[in-house]
Write a structure and sequence with these properties.
This protein is mostly helical. 46% of the residues lie in helices and 10% in strands. It is built from 21 helices and twelve strands. The structure holds zinc ion (ZN). The site of zinc ion has 9 residues, from loops.
Amino acid sequence: MFWADRIANEIRDSRKPKNGVRFVIRDEKTLSGRVHVGSMRGVAIHGLISEALSAQGIENEFLYELNDFDPFDAIPNYLDASRYDAYLGLPLYKVPSPEPGSENYAEYFGKEFVGVHERTGFHPAYYRTTELYGSGAMDPYIRIALERAADVRRILKEVSGSEKDETWLPVSVVCEACGKIMTTRAYDFDGETVGYRCDSNPDSAKSCGHEGRIPPWKGTAKLFWKVDWAAKWAAKGVDIEGGGKDHSTKGGSRDVAAHIAAELFDCPNPFDVPYEFFLVGGKKMSSSRGRGSSAKDMSELFPPEVFRLALIGKDINQQADVDPEGESVPRLYDWYDELADGVRAGKEDDYAKLFAYCQLPDTRAGFSIPWQMRFREVAFAVQMPHLNLEQEAEFAKGDSLTDEERTALAVRRKYAKYWIETYAPEQFVYQLRETMPTNALTDEQKRALGALGDFMREGQKDGDAVHARLHALKEEVPIAPKDLFQAIYLVFLGRTSGPKAGWFLAGLPYDFVVSRLSEAAK
Ligand SMILES: [Zn+2]
């Protein structure tokens, strides 16, 4: 069974909504910079569970928290460190936006990330962490956590082995003097206020030394994150919340949060959906690899339905892996086309289900499945200025194109051009050589190209005919196949590999082929 349906059935058979009406699904992202595509997997998994429940008529709501309250703890390498150094340690909502037009840093990166959700067809209900805390909705849980700080410390030690000293309290206060949250340490709760000092100095964030007392309500303080997580489940009545599998180990943050939620807040652990990573070129989220790894960059490489396939195509316990600079881009399109072929042929299995879920929810009811030219063929054709893409597509299809297929081709052309111009690896980038390379060929290769030129001069040939002639030439000259094909790619493309040679030569302008071959034979 398709994974989203399997999970929806498990939820249906094992849970009742806490609020008695509808299941609450929740996910969250801290907006500490440009969001990695890996976080889109969480959006897609929660979003698809919501869609799968809705498809069964089970009411649910998908909440998404844009975390703008966590500390700004590192400067991403694409920002000016000298400009941002002074803001380290502040809550994200107090850090300025990199560009004008956004209220703050978190809003800027949040807007970009939400834009990716929208074009990929995921529409959760958003709220900000500062709104949640500012509204006072977290205050009852802050009070419990402070009154029972000893229990929090005991659970941390029992479940995760982490020891805190006896004055440690599970809140971070926003310093009234310098505004930072990462540099304060709360040590005393008298029932209404906490005492704190701004004197811890984590890494580069400077603390100001201020000491004071403050009522920790309505956004003046934030819960320690594993307690914060548990408190949000209680405050929002969360029924379903998954997370990256790294959080779901025994003794890990999920385990700690689940114990705190149950023991302090009388709140059962939400239905967990631990999922595998979304890798970029085999690598986990890392800031070292900037280009192409953000949700925005990756989403711009594909039409929404193909990007959705990248996000939801693998079961949650399998890694997804896309490399913008590798063959995985055309392979993803091939996978999409394969699903489309199956559905067009009337298949009604899991793959048909997956294909339907790849379509945007708004268009899913009446979607149709136009024939499509393979992405790698489109990517080649768009680089050959003399080729008429529509004719090539009709040739590949063996029939004329419908209006819908023509529209689909135009979309694919746009994405293919973008990929070739941005990330495509060398093996997919072709540029016809304007001049013949000198001293590049052996005598054997010259003889072979001369004979090929004689054949071409007889008149326009199709790809099959050129292909057959190339195979015959290997025996006649004789020449090793590798030497023959390398010679062809060398004189036309200035490289030693390329597309299927017969098809390639037949597609080039006839006069150009004939003159280049005779020049090569000299
Ligand atoms: Zn301070």
